[in-house]
Amino acid sequence: MSWRSAALALVFVWFAAGGLGHFFLTDAFTSVVPSYVPYPREMVLATGVFEIAGALGLLVKRLRPFAGIGLIALTICVTPVHVDMLINAERHAVGELALWARLLFQPIFVLIIWFATLSRPSGHTVR
Question: Which one, of 67, 74, 16, 66, lies nearest residue 43 by Cα?
Fold first, then answer.
């Protein structure tokens, strides 16, 4: 398995599982939505749909770049939630170290999504 295939598999599993989690653990996801976000439950369900749709888009080669762009945008858009969780770490069962790790991993994960979906394979020539 190539690095690109492994990255693609990771991104697929991450978003497919996360998206399903939005539906099976809706209350847990809703509990971390910052108070300034309107309709928190609906936002959780909508982002779950986007995660699942993005994951499924990864499976169709010609849709993969569009899915990658969407998943990168989604990853960036949820960053304020992760910052808010860190600022209010005492309200969450996840430890502060895990919250820092997740927040610091976000830019790395964006690069993994880019590598898996948008970067050109090595040796590929443009004509």
Answer: 74
Q: CA-CA distance, 107 to 76, in Å (whole number)?
A: 9
Q: How far apart are CA 49 and CA 20, in angstroms?
A: 8
Give counts: helices (H), strands (E), the chain.
Answer: 6, 0
Q: Quick one: pLDDT at residue 115?
A: 96
For residue range 21-68, list pLDDT tens digits in order: 999 999 999 999 999 999 999 999 999 999 999 999 999 999 999 999
95/89 Cα distance (integer angstroms): 7
CB count in 10 Å sphere of residue 66: 15
The candidate with the shortest Cα–Cα distance to 15, out of 73, 61, 97, is: 73
Which structure tokens are listed for 126?
Answer: 């443009």
pTM more than 0.85: yes
